[in-house]
Amino acid sequence: PSPRHERTSPHLPGRRPSLRPPRPAHRVPPAVDAHAGQPLPLRPHAITAPIRILLVDDHTDVRTSLRSAIEAQPDMRVTGEATSGEDTIARVKETRPDVLVLDLHLTDGNGWVVLERLATTGQLPPTLVLSACEESVFARRLLAAGARGYLMKEAPLARIVAAIREIHRGLLVASEQISTQLMLSLIHISEPTRPY
Fold first, then answer.
1. What are phi and psi of 102, to 5 degrees?
2. Is the CB of residue 157 less than 8 Å from the CB of residue 101?
3. What is the DSSP letter of 79?
4. What is the reported pTM?
5. Could you tell me where the beta strands, DSSP code E, fall in the chain?
6. Which 8-state DSSP code applies to residue 50?
7. Running along the chain, 196 residues long, what does each successive block of 10 average in pLDDT?
8. Beta strands in 44-148 (DSSP E)
């Protein structure tokens, strides 16, 4: 009978080296188009375009603070600034922003006029109104005119940045107090009452 061949190992002394060819490295087969029989091209990673924002305020320091907070976000970009109603309407037509951040009180009027004029021409982008007046009557009128959000100008910059994202996603935004006032007005209650 023929002698039995012993398994060899390159790590053990005194053994003959193995004559077996090394196994090929495992390779993942490329994806194949079932119809054409050809490998599918690799898909590039999806690139999300930044949210384009137009800032409107007649105070330079306010615009500077907002711009700094917005441009620190990787998914946002300020496409322009305006200081008056007429300038705002012209810049909206020129830059076509994804979100308009609008001061309620401007040198040549107020945000209501801007909203109504843009809405009339069908060019009103999703708009976040910033105001110094925390009154639900202002919020109701502005939301009815087409605004998507109403916040106090003294709100933290992080809250304003978050509101821009929410409005861009199609949500309505308001401060907690304004939201409470609007909800109470819907159910015709002037003041919250405690349950007993």
1. -120, 125
2. no
3. E
4. 0.70
5. 51-56, 76-82, 99-103, 105-106, 109-110, 127-131, 149-152, 173-174
6. P
7. 49 55 54 48 61 95 95 96 94 96 87 90 94 77 88 92 96 84 69 53
8. 51-56, 76-82, 99-103, 105-106, 109-110, 127-131
